[in-house]
Amino acid sequence: MPRTLFPDAVAVRWSTGDVPGKLHPREQELIRSAVPSRVAEFRTGRTLARECLAEFMGPAAADAVIERHPDRSPAWPKGYCGSITHCTGLRIAVVARRGDVSALGVDAEPAVELPPEAVPELLTTEECRLLAERGVPDVLGFSAKESLYKLWTGMGGGWLGFFEARIANVDGRALKVEVTSNTRPCGVPPVIDIGYRISGGHVVTGAWL
Predict the structure, then answer these.
(1) Is 141 helix (H, G, I), strand (E, B) or coil?
(2) CB 152 within 8 A of CB 183
(3) How far apart are the first and last CA of the chain?
């Protein structure tokens, strides 16, 4: 399912559960205080990411270290961009060469409605109406903004609030999201298409530039 959200230049790997893999010492340091479940999902994300990198780097990908920026996003090897997401029952990594793609964002969520008390913090009334008219769960709007945020930070942007991005349209394959922030990183257009798929009890969104 995630494969169809990205062009052929993007390597995509996913798993419905945790997979074994080796973390490098600098990566292990990032989760030294984490609970076992968090360690497992972190290891899975890095393992899937290295499998993506192997499409470009070959065996050298096994030694690639994926550290973390201050905003907690993955710090990719020089010359590459990517994104990682994990939720109950699904883990996804996407990677591309920066010469082919400038930035990537991917997000996965269980395909259920958001808790009612959380909706006003994430979506406007108009956004909820657009999603309801399309017959999709409102979590799709949240996921689209998460993918956009990952793309945004990958382009060097800072904090982007949930109400600095507005869902302008929803069709059967994508959402159009308008960036309303007063500042945009160079290369980020004012309106971005966020692809989505709903299958197997999950919502998956993906963005790329």
Answers:
(1) helix
(2) no
(3) 20
